[in-house]
Amino acid sequence: MSxxxxxxxxxxxxVFLLTTLLGWLFRARVKLTWGSTSSNFxxxxxxxxxxxxSVWTEKFFVQNVGRKAAQSIELVFSAPxxxxxxxxxxxxxxxxxxxxxxxxxxxxxxxxxxxxxxxxDIDLRAPKLVTVNCPDAIAQQVAFQVNRKFGAAFxxxxxxxxxxGLFASIYLxxxxxxxxxx
Length: 182
Hints:
Layout: H1 3-25, E1 32-44, E2 53-64, E3 70-77, E4 83-87, E5 93-96, E6 102-109, E7 114-122, E8 129-133, E9 140-141, H2 152-181
Parallel strand pairs: 1-9
Antiparallel strand pairs: 1-2, 2-7, 3-6, 3-8, 4-7, 5-6
């Protein structure tokens, strides 16, 4: 075996390993994120002499941001809510656990699909979404913030500034490198 043959074998092996790594990195997979955007609390005095009625509402989001459908998703709440609503409406199962937790079982969530769970609770139990379980992935909790939506002209101007800054940085780096080489 000559030196040229061993070089070709090493290059072939390197190309194989690189393509395998890239295929693994960019494969279609499930990626679940979940969180809560808003929580509201209201107290009503419906009649004199009776205690106040407390109403708590919260909106939870579960999204599959991956490129593969998620199967058998389970949303576990700290307590059963008085009422809940799924959007978009879909088939689901309900399970009350022995430790007092409450679970919604969703058969599947398509790639890039968003599931919204509106929860209403009366009299201060305030169930929280504890975890999202899925055999295909580990769900990640994300923090949501209310954000102002700007118009198209403002967004276009900001995009222009970002692209101009990128090109200016590249130009500066090339100038510094070419100046250092001379």
